From TrEMBL:
Positions that bind substrate: 244-249, 308-312, 378-383
Active site: 246, 283
Species name: Mycolicibacterium chubuense (strain NBB4) (Mycobacterium chubuense)
Keyword Nuclease: no
Pathway: Glycan biosynthesis; trehalose biosynthesis
The name this protein goes by in its record: Malto-oligosyltrehalose trehalohydrolase
Length: 577
């Protein structure tokens, strides 16, 4: 059997031993807190670490595989020779692309990487450029959203483990699809979090999901390296084309070089090494353009960021919802302001936060493609009390308007799985914590949270009930039915328009022009010779724009000076210059 060096950073315990299939070996400690041992082992051996006098065998913090779950021994793993066949894949940046966010466990009935592969041709036909998978790191239980990961280097086994992820990425590349992996570095889940036993992985601070990760306190250097190496692993070892970074505003970094700047620099170095572009997409609620400003101009160098202001502006204008953080949105004026400038809150007062929020975006130097526009995300549906989608509350025409505003905008676009056919499935919050007390606390906490906002506690789905998970799976048999099929065709047309019309691909907000009438409820977004005309009201309206109808929901009538739009309808027009 070949020799293998096992290593673990564990500055906290006084003694660390290596357990290999039940046989315990001593380990030697270096001054930097790393423990090492060289042992002859099989290439797929199970192993773990024993700390001090606690007999529990703990998984490797950098575990490459967890075949028996996050509470058990790790397993050595390397991709089989020639696992990838994507040598001809040259990659592409996400800027200006159409991204499709999906949850592996609910995307298909089987909920695996291999079953997702069977739907990739559908995504190619739809016209998307990237698949963004919600977190696939190892977490407690069999199913969940994935944001409770505790072993960030390992791939969730019920999805198909690391080999299954390789098959999915390789299959995407074979079809010309890029892959983004959702990575969570701002907190650890409650089930199977053994990292604090090894060293100072956690800080003294906290965020809404638990204790914060230590990236700036004493001992932070190795924790930062843990994060950076994990980020690079997804792109180097699994050939992902980039990462979506969860809630980076919760990464509290008081050092002179922010960890995101380090990650950006190391990602660019890896991209140069492998010869294809790699993208980092940050989720942030700070409205801080420094996040997407290049490093050589004093920014953090993220490729792009999620933009919730765009979502809020579109959703509230169409739906009329105004509760919670939607309170400052809802008018066509707000919609126009947000689409023109990227952020609505840009040093302005936020009634939800009770303070000023955001910073203006320099639209002359930062292209719109560094911001993501969307009408739906896992958060915007799953964090609603009952996980209801807009398709369960709005007309199909209203859904078409939302799609046209997002996909017809200058921004990089993103869809959430099933929105393109107005899926009837909710996307509810679900979990499968194996610990009874944690399971009960999760269910009770969810009900209490929404009951405080006026919901009947009996209406709140139990996250631990397997039926909540099953209800959230897409129903693929409805894709071509009636309005479902019509809406999917409309989405396909909008996506194709982004490729075929140079004016629609223009990334500069300074070239965007918007007209609207608050009382008549019409809204027009001008993209050069292309105009996206919407009627957000229920009654027919004359919109003062005309041209050849390229794409429409409803039956528009284009006259010499105006176009008549039915209620809840939209038309894409090519104007004669």
């Amino acid at each position: 059997m070949p020799e293998h060096e096992f290593a673990v950073w564990a500055p906290s315990p006084e003694r660390v031993r290596l357990d290999v299939d039940g046989t315990v070996h001593p380990m030697e400690r270096a001054e930097d807190g790393w423990w090492r041992a060289v042992v002859d082992v099989a290439p797929d051996v199970r192993y773990g670490f024993v700390l001090d006098d606690d007999p529990k065998v703990l998984p490797d913090p950098r575990s490459p595989r967890q075949p028996d779950g996050v509470h058990e021994r790790s397993q050595l793993w390397q991709p089989v020779p020639h696992a990838f066949s994507d040598g001809d894949w040259n990659g592409r940046s996400i800027e200006g692309a159409v991204i499709y966010e999906l949850h592996v466990g609910t995307f298909t009935p089987d909920g695996t990487f291999d079953s997702a592969i069977e739907k990739l041709d559908y995504l190619v036909d739809l016209g998307v450029d990237f698949v963004e998978v919600m977190p696939v790191n190892a977490f407690g239980g069999t199913h969940g959203w994935g944001y409770d990961g505790v072993l960030w280097y390992a791939v969730h086994e019920p999805y198909g483990g690391p080999d299954g992820l390789i098959r999915l990425v390789d299959a995407c590349h074979a079809r010309g699809l890029g892959v983004l992996i959702d990575a969570v570095f701002n907190h650890l889940g409650p089930s199977g979090n053994y990292l604090p036993k090894f060293g100072p992985y956690l800080s003294s601070g906290s965020n809404p999901w638990g204790e914060s990760i230590n990236i700036a306190d004493a001992g932070a250097d190795q924790v930062r390296r843990y994060i950076l190496d994990c980020a690079l692993r997804w792109m180097r070892d699994f050939h992902a084309d980039g990462l979506r970074l969860d809630a980076v505003h919760a990464l509290v970094d008081t050092t002179a070089i922010h960890i995101l700047e380090e990650m950006s620099a190391e990602t660019d170095a890896l991209a140069a090494e492998i010869g294809r572009p790699l993208s980092l997409v940050a989720e942030s609620d700070m409205n801080d353009p420094r996040l997407i400003t290049p490093r050589d101009r004093g920014g953090l160098g993220m490729t792009a960021q999620w933009d919730d202001d765009i979502h809020h502006a579109i959703h509230t204008a169409v739906s009329g919802e105004r509760q919670g953080y939607y309170g400052d949105f809802g008018t066509l004026e707000t919609l126009a302001e947000t689409l023109r400038h990227g952020y609505f809150h840009a040093g302005t007062y936020s009634s939800f936060r009770h303070r000023r929020h955001g910073r203006p975006l320099d639209t002359a130097t930062i292209p719109a493609t560094r911001l993501l526009a969307y009408t739906l995300t896992h958060d915007q549906v799953g964090n609603r009390a009952v996980g209801d989608r807009p398709s369960q509350n709005l007309t199909t025409g209203q859904l078409a308007i939302k799609a046209a505003l997002a996909l017809g905008s200058p921004y990089t676009a993103m869809l959430f799985m099933g929105e393109e056919w107005a899926s009837s499935s909710p996307f509810q919050f679900f979990s499968s914590h194996p610990e009874p007390e944690l399971a009960r606390a999760t269910a009770e906490g969810r009900k209490k949270e929404f009951a405080e906002h006026g919901w009947d506690a009996d209406e709140i789905p139990d996250p631990q009930d397997p039926a909540t998970f099953e209800r959230s799976k897409l129903k693929w048999d409805e894709v071509d039915e009636g309005d479902h099929g019509r809406l999917r065709t409309f989405y396909r047309g909008l996506i194709a328009l982004r490729r075929s019309e140079p004016d629609v691909a223009d990334p500069w907000l300074d070239h965007l022009r918007i007209d609207y009438d608050e009382d008549a409820r019409w809204f027009v977004m001008h993209r050069g010779s292309i105009a996206v005309a919407c009627n957000l009201g229920t009654d027919p309206v004359e919109v003062p724009v005309t041209g050849d109808v390229v794409l429409a929901w409803g039956e528009p009538t284009a006259g010499d000076d105006a176009t008549r739009l039915d209620g809840h309808s939209v038309a894409v027009l090519r104007q004669v210059r």
